């Protein structure tokens, strides 16, 4: 009988993933990673719901304490990033360093199981010609999470199942009701786990970075107002800057040395190109020449046509067909060919930011 360790958050998606595999004949083992120190919805309540689900399915359940791993790879990563004027994306970092890798290692080393599964909306398809495991968008594009999974290795993809990738969220809810799962009507989590635990990203960061007042300036250095901490701002931000102006203003730069937030109009926030570091090539091997693709620079942004130019040291240059706004250092840039995720990496800070 096939054995699989299913990562359980306590939500409806991971619950249905486990129940689906169980119905398909897999020998399911439930596992929850204990991520955060202190009280947080994703941990305390999630563990109880996950344990109850495993009781309903009559399968084993394990909790693995990864709080120190989460603290080092996510909390420290975020605090360091925001403190240096960038806006890190925690979810892709968490998937690689905290969730999938440690979960697969625990499954193999402690349980003797070499396959894992989660409730992510994405698809994995083996390419027999290239020998690579291709990562594709989910059928339900409104729920597609492939953007956050670009940094998974071929080894992890080869041993991972995404049972929900071929269905819609509506179908997932319906299946949860059919399975009689207690999570069928559980509200969907809308925020990062850190925000759920601390109320807001601002509140979380203020625990670690002491707010320090400074000036908000335009590109010429003219003082337009004051800020109460550069970590409260992000490149491309328009709302909440706190300055009255005759036109919309955007954050176009953060000067850590001067403790200044630099703002400008929409035209000044547009970019024709940017560079990406820590690139992971997924569905294809690293190309020797530039390729055409569609790049997505935020989770909810539309993928737009571009050229991806390979550079040395796991870097690329991305050139838009048409200028784009809100290219934010620290966020992920992920490029696709149709629904196939080719690769991705972390947007670098340019010299003028």
Describe it.
- The protein has three domains: 3-197, Rossmann fold; 211-268, SH3 type barrels (Roll); 270-347, Elongation Factor Tu (Ef-tu), domain 3 (Beta Barrel), CATH 2.40.30.
- A six-stranded antiparallel barrel has the order 12-15-14-13-16-17. A five-stranded parallel beta sheet has the order 3-2-1-4-7, sandwiched between helices.
- It has nine helices and 17 strands.
- The model has no long low-confidence stretch (mean pLDDT 91).
- Strand 16 and strand 17 form a beta hairpin.
- It is 27% helix and 29% strand.
- The chain is α/β, with parallel strands linked by helices and 353 residues long.
User: What would CATH call the class of the largest domain?
Assistant: Alpha Beta
The residue fraction in helices comes out at 25-40%
Global Rg: 21 Å
| Net shape | globular
**Order of strands, widest sheet:** 12-15-14-13-16-17
Distance between the termini: 55 Å
pLDDT < 50 runs, ≥5 residues: none
List keywords for this structure.
3 domains, 27% helix, five-stranded parallel β-sheet, 353 residues, Rossmann fold, Elongation Factor Tu (Ef-tu), domain 3, single chain
């Amino acid at each position: 009988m096939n054995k699989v360790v299913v990562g359980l958050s306590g939500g409806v998606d991971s619950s249905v993933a486990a129940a689906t595999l169980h119905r398909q004949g897999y020998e399911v083992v439930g596992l929850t990673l204990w991520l955060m120190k202190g009280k947080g919805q994703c941990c305390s309540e999630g563990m109880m719901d996950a344990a109850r689900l495993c009781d309903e399915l009559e399968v084993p359940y394990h909790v693995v304490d990864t709080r120190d791993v989460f603290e080092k790879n996510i909390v420290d990563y975020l605090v360091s990033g925001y403190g240096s004027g960038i806006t890190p994306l925690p979810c892709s970092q968490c998937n690689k360093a905290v969730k999938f890798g440690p979960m697969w290692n625990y499954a193999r080393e402690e349980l003797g199981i070499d396959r894992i599964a989660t409730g992510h909306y994405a698809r994995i398809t083996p390419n027999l010609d290239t020998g690579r495991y291709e990562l594709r968008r989910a059928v339900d594009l409104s729920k597609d999470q492939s953007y956050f999974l670009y940094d998974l290795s071929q080894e992890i993809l080869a041993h991972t199942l995404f049972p929900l990738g071929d269905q819609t969220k509506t179908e997932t809810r319906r299946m949860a009701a059919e399975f009689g799962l207690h999570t069928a009507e559980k509200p969907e989590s809308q925020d990062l786990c850190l925000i759920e635990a601390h109320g807001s990203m601002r509140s979380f960061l203020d625990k670690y970075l002491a707010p320090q007042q400074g000036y908000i300036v335009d590109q010429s250095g003219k003082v337009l107002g004051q800020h109460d901490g550069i970590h409260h701002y992000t490149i491309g931000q328009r709302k909440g800057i706190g300055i009255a102006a005759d036109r919309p203003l955007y954050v176009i730069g953060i000067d850590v040395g001067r403790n200044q937030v630099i703002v400008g109009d929409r035209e000044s926030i547009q970019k024709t190109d940017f560079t990406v570091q820590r690139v992971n090539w997924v569905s294809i091997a690293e190309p020797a020449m530039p390729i055409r693709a569609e790049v997505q620079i935020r989770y909810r942004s539309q993928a737009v046509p571009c050229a991806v130019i390979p550079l040395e040291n796991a870097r690329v240059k991305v050139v838009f067909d048409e200028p784009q706004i809100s290219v934010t250092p620290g966020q992920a840039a992920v490029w696709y060919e149709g629904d196939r995720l080719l690769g991705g990496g972390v947007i670098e800070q340019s010299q003028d930011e």
